[in-house]
Amino acid sequence: MTNGNIPNGNEIVPGRVIAEYRGLYKVLTEKGEYNANITGKMYYRASEETDLPAVGDYARIDVGGGGTAVLREILPRKSVFVERRPDRSANRRRLRRTLTMFS
Questions:
Q1: Longest C-alpha distance within the chain, in Å?
Q2: Which residue has the higher pLDDT, 14 or 22?
Q3: Which of 75, 78, 85, 97 would give a disulfide with 58, using CB separation of 3.0 to 4.6 Å?
Q4: In angstroms, what is the C-alpha Rg of the chain?
Q5: How far are the Cα atoms of 11, 50, 53, 64, 89 from residue 43, in angstroms, in the given order?
Q6: Is 99 inside any structural domain?
Q7: Whole-number Å distance between alpha carbons of 33 and 28
Q8: Torsion over CA: 91, 93, 98, 102 (sign)
């Protein structure tokens, strides 16, 4: 993200996401901990869950203006752990077989 996309007068600092609470992120910086929201643009441009901030991500946050900080950019990840969700159709088939066996 270039400085042209950041409103004037705001202070952008690097930090690391240390917790997430339903869309509110706790970010640790050299200046301390901040609660941060992501921008609407970041939320609506995310096509997958991995496009959103995760615990452990490094980011740039806007701490200017008091109150809640704004998470402006996720810095590139070097690695990622992705939990696979179970195939729902396979679970349905397994449940159907089990019910058939006991009926």
A1: 70
A2: 14
A3: 75
A4: 20
A5: 21, 11, 10, 21, 29
A6: no
A7: 4
A8: positive
Measured between alpha carbons, how far is 42 from 85 in angstroms, rounded to an integer? 24
CATH code, 66: 2.40.50.140
* Host domain of residue 40: 3-78
Would you call 25 helix, strand, or coil by DSSP? strand
Q: Can you give the pTM of this predicted structure?
A: 0.68
**Number of domains into which the chain is organized:** 1
Q: Are 68 and 35 in contact (CB under 8 A)?
A: yes
Q: Is residue 13 part of a domain?
A: yes
Specify the 3-state DSSP secondary structure of 67.
coil
CA dist 59 and 28 (Å) reads 10
Shortest CA distance to 35 belongs to which of 8, 53, 17, 54?
17
CA distance 15 to 29: 4
